[in-house]
Amino acid sequence: MEYLVVAIVIVVVALVVLGLLAVGRRGRRVDLPPEPRESSAGPRGGTSGERDEGDKGPVATAERPTGTGPDTGPDTAPVEELEVVEPPAPAIERPEPVQGRLVRLRARLARSQSTLGKGLLGLLSRDRIDEETWEEIEDALLTADVGVGPTEELVERLRTRVRVEGAASQDHAREILRSELLTLVGTDLDRSLHVTRTSTNPAVVLVVGVNGTGKTTTVGKLARVLVAEDKDVILGAADTFRAAAAAQLATWGDRVGVPTIRGPEGGDPASVAFDSVKAGVEQESDVVIVDTAGRLHTKTGLMDELGKVKRVIEKQAPVSEVLLVIDATTGQNGLTQARVFAEVVDVTGIVLTKLDSTAKGGIIIAVQRELGVPVKLVGLGEGADDLAPFEPAAFVDALLGE
After folding, report:
1. Nearest CA to 52 among 62, 65, 39, 63?
2. CA separation for the pair 115, 127 (Å, rounded)
3. Distance between alpha carbon 184 and the CA centroid of its chain, in Å?
4. What DSSP character marks residue 35?
5. pTM here?
6. How many whole angstroms from its chain centre is CA 308?
7. How far apart, in whole angstroms, are the C-alpha atoms of residue 228 and residue 363?
8. CB of 182 within 8 A of CB of 266?
9. Under DSSP, is residue 132 helix (H, G, I), strand (E, B) or coil?
């Protein structure tokens, strides 16, 4: 009986062990993926490039960078993300300080203007100054575009000084001529630019002149002068008739980080001027410079339009300066231009351009005498910083070759 009980226990233990072994083998079984089915479309089957349902392997995916080509489906090989490189911003130039450029401009002016001064000195230094000599002096001044009235005044004053003091040496003659030329050019005129912001409004500079005098270039160079003085400037491209004017002005502004307000080509210039000054008020800028279209002084309609531009601007803020740009090479014709513009927009200052290309620097004296308005700026070259405040002493010294 005892042997039977032992046998039953052994059988039960064996059955339990066999059951545990069977369960262990089932837990270690690995299900292999089925073999892929071949088809005429390739090893992955299907004509649309899709994977078979039985294929449970990993799928590599990558987002296609925008604009790199058409999406070819999830079977496309991974594409590296492209880095978008922004073009470098244009470098902002730092204009040359005004005082720094005056030395260079004085030397350039002396090279182009000294013919008149040397001629006058030679005549005044003669051992004997007779009536014929005085006529030669008068002719030299008229040839230099000094004008009839100023020439007669200067000659009369020189006659008196030479008669009283004499001109025994060239140095003495130079001293007399320098003194009288300074008196004629005017050392007591206010040549400062009124470009100081008020408590509520920016200073507004309106730039006017006939075609071809270099107004747009002058506006760009004036912006550089003001930026060099750490002023916050806005440019207004109110020359809407010349296709390239607004783009040209914007280029000047971009070089020194100054914004330009533009309008549609052929649009209303008064509207552009209004928007420019409005932007200056809203942004609390220091100065707004408004470029206008060149116009012949004989065209009444265009001159009336210029008056409208100024009136519209003044609805936003007072006009601080009206600068008339005159080409120094036009000589006495520049006086006629100046007279008409002054009647329409009340010119407050003159900008003489291309003064380096003419020996007729007397136009400075003539235009001031004609208008009673000072020359405030002179252009002496094509360089970006070849615009500087006019200094009577430097100009006269240049005339005399000093």
Report:
1. 39
2. 21
3. 35
4. P
5. 0.73
6. 26
7. 29
8. no
9. helix
* 220 token code pair: 């760009």
Q: What string of pLDDT tens digits covers the 402 residues of the chain?
A: 566 666 676 766 666 656 665 555 544 444 444 544 444 444 444 443 444 444 443 333 333 334 444 444 444 444 445 454 454 556 788 787 766 666 666 666 666 555 677 778 888 888 788 889 899 989 888 888 788 888 999 999 998 988 888 776 778 888 888 899 899 888 888 999 999 999 999 999 999 988 778 889 999 999 999 999 999 999 999 988 887 889 999 999 999 999 999 988 888 999 999 999 999 999 999 999 999 987 665 566 677 888 899 999 999 999 999 999 988 877 777 777 778 888 888 899 999 888 766 556 678 888 888 888 999 998 877 888 888 888 888 888 877 766
Phi, psi (deg, nearest 5) at residue 28: -95, 5
Dist CA 306 CA 57 (whole Å): 79
Residues forming a β-bridge with 17: none
* Single-letter amino acid code for the residue at 285: S
Per-residue tokens: 256 = 């020194």
Give me 206's structure tokens.
């309106």
